[in-house]
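User: Teach me something about this protein's shape.
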Amino acid sequence: MAHAYTPGLKVTDSTVLRKTRRLPILGEVLVSLGEDVEPFTPVARTDLPGDPQTVNAAYVLSLLPNEVRSALTKKEGDTVAKGEVIGQSATLFGLLKKKLLSPCDGTVERISDVTGQVTLREPPTPLEITAYISGKIVEVLPKEGVVVETVGAFIQGIFGVGGETFGTVRFRAKAPDKPLVAADIDSDCRGTIVVGGSLITGEAIERAAKLGVNALVAGGIIDTDLVKYLGYDIGVAITGHEDVPTTLIVTEGFGPMRMADKTFELLKALDGKEASVTGATQIRAGVMRPEIIVSGCVSRKSKGQDVGSEGLVPGTPVRLIREPYFGQLGSVVELPPELQVIETEAHVRILKARLASGEVVTVPRANVEIIEG
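Assistant: First, the predicted structure itself:
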């Protein structure tokens, strides 16, 4: 039988993880090779250039462009304060004086003798990046960042919103097919990662945001609840930069969707442990999935080694990702090697999968996603 592989979500109790923490522009690395770090440890910092502001000095001062430079009280590289007089001129035999005021704090970046415009640069914004996970620095990228390595539990979701956050896992799920409701969230959940079952309800999101919950994790979410939470309709090409108080991660899809048993049981076992999570999702090239990482978890089976995937073979757990079985879980029963014609008249490779209900269905291999471990 030919080897087959379909990318999928990874769910494992122990794997070797490496996270590259890189600055957007060159800066300063704050840690050393071999150093142990925690999620909040600063590992690199830089200053992001401020926004430029351009003023038409020639127009304001009623001068020719090549006369502007001599009328300014500041030269290129000088600092300025908002409202400060940075240039002046006199007209009508000195009776009418005009002043040029700085529109912002910053520095004079450029004076143009051709256009008579002055470009000011607002003050830089300090940027500091943290390690995100507990682990060890295994590589230093000079002036750029570092690579952090850890061994731990790793769970990927299918979609999320909100950025990186940290907290203790609070397992509040009654069952993998039961929703997370507002009553499941109390003051003890402040600053934690709350785990539910099949659905993050709109009421649960509102309560979590009000109480200061760092993240919610469950099988699915209703799209209208997501839009209400964000205040706008979101595209799923890339997320993670939303200005929201609580990061949301769904492990199965949209709508009420039973959480996969493997994911459910692993999250249950991680109750009370410290986790690093992010809702960042990218569907295009360079795919990113929302994730939950708990450092320091080493199973007896893996002993700290990464768990590989054998690809699609009989027994492989899968999630079906197209209608009419969208979101259902099952396992591979058979992988016929010959191409078969489907409804669209395309010739594709198919597989037979046994669903949780016991029904055996035939679907294109491209319509399934491996649940990796």
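Now, about its shape. The domain at 158-289 is CATH 3.50.30 (Glucose Oxidase; domain 1). The longest strand covers residues 8-22. If you'd like, I can walk through any region in more detail.
User: That's plenty for now, thanks!
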